[in-house]
Each structure stands twice: as C-alpha cells, then as structure tokens.
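User: structure tokens for this one?
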Amino acid sequence: MLDHDTRQAIAPPAQGEGDGESWLMSYLDVLTLLITLFVLLLSMASYGLPGEREDEIVSPARQAALAVGQGLKPRHEGLQPRFQGLGIDGVSVEHGARGVTLRIEERLLFDSGRARLTEGGHGVLARLAERLTGVEGEISVEGHTDSLPIATSRFPSNWELSTGRASAVVRALAEAGVARERLRAIGYADTRPLAANDSAEGRAENRRVELLLKAPAGRG
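Assistant:
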C-alpha cells in the first residue's frame, strides 16, 4: 500500500467551487456575441450598407405593400376627370369610396314639392347626358329631401317625393341618349342628409338629386 506522502503526490489537485461553472460562463459569452452579430446583420439588411442611398433601398416587404396598394385603386378612379369643368352652377362632382357622384341642387331641376322637371332642369340633364354617354358603367339616380313632412294625394310622404324625382331624372337621361339598362332610380327621402335640417340653408342643401357613377367591373 502507498504511504500517505505518496498518495498526496499523485492525487489530482482539488477543484474550487467556481471551477465547475467556468465553462457555462464562456458559453454565455459566445451566445451573447452571436446574438449581437445577428442584430447587426439584421439592421444592415433593413437600412442598407454604409454608402448606400436611402432612395435605393426598397425592402421586399415595402415592394409587396406598394404592389397591393396599386391593386386596390378604385376601378372608378378614372371617371372623375371626365366631369371636371362642367361649369354648371349648382352641380358639384365628388369622388368617394362608392364612385363618382354628380350632386345637383333641387332648384336646378324641380319646383318645391313637385316631381315634374322644369324646363331648365331638362337643359341641365341634357348637358350632363353628353358626358354620361361618353363613359361606361351603372348610374344610380338618387333622390333626397329635407325633413319637412309632405302629405299630398300624389306624395303621401317624402319617400314618394324622392322616388318620383329620381324617376323623372332617369326618364330625362334616357330620352337624352343614356342607355336605359345603365340607369336605376332610388328614393332616400330625408334619411341621408348632408346638413342639419334646423335651418333653411341646411334644408336647401339636403334637397338634391345625386347621380352615382360606377365603372364596370374589371375596368381601372
């Protein structure tokens, strides 16, 4: 058997309490460096390398967003320029989500409480028909009134008045050369006001006829 001095000479040196965890600290240091390198590479990919111009950097995500945005342009976008410069006082053009709207004030078309077109109203619609025949798509003629009630033998309520006015405009447009299959008449009464009905000015603004134009499907 080995004596005490010999055993101490060949025995491995004793490890301290922290020596067993030293490999773990080295591993965490390497992992931290790898994460830092990854973040650096990611930032360089997003913003470009030094010396690159900002306007030359277009990420794939941005390219996809631009492509989608172009594909979502309303198909009626090209209609509005055709109705600019009408030069008719009381007729406005509005480009909205539903399409292009030609808004005609009541005074240009009808006498108060009536659904028969005035002579001047026929002239206004004849001028609009010249533009309408040059475009394709459906035309919704929408009649609107104020909130003052009406109760006559012909118009028991504003529903009948607004629908009668829309129908009169449809007939006049068809007679002026607009294809009948493109037209439809809708009466909204006082359910879609543009202004409050508590003043004469507001009620006059609400009494109107609108022509809503929608380009045919598949057309840009």
